[in-house]
Amino acid sequence: MATQRCEFCTARPNREVAVSRWREDPDDRERLTLWVCTKHLARMQKAGTRGWAHGDVFYKTGFW
Ligand SMILES: [Zn+2]
Fold it and tell me: Which residues span the domain enclosing 43?
């Protein structure tokens, strides 16, 4: 069975998404897949290309 909780909270994950993650420089991003809940997926999608800030780390959906 896959991950039982969202990467960012204790909610049940909705699906696995491809995300880009970076700290200061968006060009220096890491590409990975994370299991996230509906709420956190919506936050990342809403933030768009500038990314959703979680602490000092930014996330956006997609690898580009
Ligand atoms: Zn979540």
Answer: 15-61
Cα(35) to centroid of ligand 1, in Å?
9
pLDDT digit string, tens, across residues 17-61 = 999 999 999 999 999 999 999 999 999 999 999 999 999 999 999
pTM across the whole model:
0.88
DSSP string covering 7-40: SSSSSPP-EEEEEEEESS-TTS-EEEEEEE-HHH
CA of 27 to the centre of ligand 1 (A): 25
Q: Is residue 51 part of a domain?
A: yes
Residue 1 lies in a domain: no
